[in-house]
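$ run holo --ligand "threonylcarbamoyladenylate" --emit tokens
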Amino acid sequence: METELLSADIAGIEKAAELIKKGELVGMPTETVYGLAADACNQQAVAKIFAAKGRPADNPLIVHIADISELQNLCDDIPELAYRLAGKFWPGPLTMILKKKSSVPDITSGGLDTVGIRMPSHPAALMLIEKSGLPLAAPSGNISGYPSPTKAEHMMRDMKGRISAVIDGGECSVGVESTVISFENDNTVRILRPGGVTRDDLLEEAENVIIDPAILHEISEGQTVRSPGMKYQHYSPKARVIMVEGGYESFCRYVNENSHEGVYAIVFEDDNKGMLRVPSVSYGCDDREQAHMIFSRLREMDSLGAEKVYVMAPKAEGVGLAVYNRLIRAAGFEVIQV
Ligand code: TXA
Ligand code: MG
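-- output --
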């Protein structure tokens, strides 16, 4: 199959919308990461998403909408708090898990009776949803297990020959996937996956915000999880990733002592360049920069042929909690304290 690279203008998006209406797959830019989009209510189209990604059938997809009124066509028993959060954070990087209506096929929800809904803020995503006139199911557009795509070229690398088109909407501004929440009661939400909307942000509307323990800890075998995505190996480049917690000097000392051919480092701003004796790239100094760059840096390691990558652990605060959550999974929970 030819995969066409479309520009994010009206002509490109109209073409993509026609493909979606025919049940085809399109790479869609969003403010978080690129998604692999299809008509959420067309079972054959959704089956193609699972096949193209190599995604386990029990891992549900997020459904993307462009208008809040669509919520009641897809979900039942929507709490008042959900409307308040939507009012505050949509369009944007927040996914809410709600009870699904039968209009959402079981294949889309991975067999669950709930569905994750989000309204993205990227103008190309909103226009694609509007032009196709359909809610769009879209997981991150990577091959299952690999780092999520944050540029059209990442989507092309993973999906070329497997899908009809990719819309080039530039680099994703947030860079990590949306915050996924569920509702515990009228005023309490639980973060199942941290993202661009932080715990402090949510506390502006919700009285209590629980951070699910699975965000920072490994799932033990047989443990039940609240979100199927928590069980799977994620975000890993081919290179072995090791997260290192400690200051820059101790980091450099440790990496230098363990350096050999094929070892690389991902650090904050490299202002003390002489110290590190392995090749390194920076992923920025603060949580927003780190979120913006991390997936791109992990992919870059494979292009460079890295075998082992030591990454300076980010502060697990603000959006940094999302970066920490992705890295600890990329590292298969291999963390070294120095
Ligand atoms: O930012 C994002 O959310 C991106 C863009 C494309 O919108 N999408 C994305 O989708 O990251 P995906 O499929 O890669 O991750 C969705 C996560 C998975 O971990 C899945 O298990 C969880 O959300 N999820 C989806 N529906 C769920 C549900 N009904 N209950 C619990 N967890 C759910
Ligand atoms: Mg994903």
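-- notes --
The radius of gyration is 20 Å.
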